[in-house]
Amino acid sequence: MTFHILTDSTADLSPEWLETNQVDVLGLTIQLDGVHYETVGHDRLTSPVLLEKMAAGSQPTTSQINVGQFEAYFKEKAQAGEAVLYVAFSSVLSGTYQSAIMARDLVLEEFPEAAITIIDTLAASAGEGYLVMQAARLRDAGHSLEETQAEIQDLAARLKTYFLVDDLNHLMRGGRISKASAMIGGLVNIKPIISIETDGKLGTAAKVRGKKKAMTEFIGLALEDLSESTVVVAYADELGAAETIKNRLLEDSRIKEVLLFPLGPIIAAHVGPGTLALFTIGKQAR
Questions:
Q1: In terms of pTM, does the model score above 0.90?
Q2: Which residues of the chain have pLDDT under 50?
Q3: In 15-70, which ranges are E strands?
């Protein structure tokens, strides 16, 4: 292994995949009903438990990975003379990326030759996860850290992200959208489709009346600009809807593979029950 890959729990990759593919992970945390929960490890909070509590009215909050956690990880690798590529959660949606930058600077003061590369994906959930998967594929195929970094940055720039969210109040509560934007969701049967824009901020890609029409528009947006034959679908608690989207996507001859990911607890805490997400790699930068 030429270098280590690190990601965070917002990438929504399973513990089994991470272990099999030798990818390290640090976890953001969740506060729920007065209790502090981890999102990695055997005692981690799982999405089904979280979503059930949210459906009953609980309002979770999340906390970023702190500088000390990153510093400990980077220092351990630097002391061993081992290089690291950290594929990071969007800097626009969390302070986690900035914590990593600060930790790297601290470690470089003591180990100036340390090789610590950090990529701000401006992505979240299975979009970030897909980039991590590609980084592991490149590393295992013998690509250098520099080659892998360049390829992942190119993919990240072309990653298209769409969320179909049932209740925008969860995003508003977490400060990800404004109160005015959340009010759209209060209109009669209007289903906004949220996108991640070029600068990493959340935008509204479409406003559609009715869930059925929204899903059709949702799929149409994902198919507008495709350069890769793999599409990723993520879901909160509606596996059946995700499988329906998968089958409809596979009707397009350009798509050879659709990966299904359950949303992890950090992302689920911000988007809530009933959320679906689509991730594609386009020909043009988003």
A1: yes
A2: 174-176, 180, 182
A3: 23-26, 29-32, 35-38, 61-63
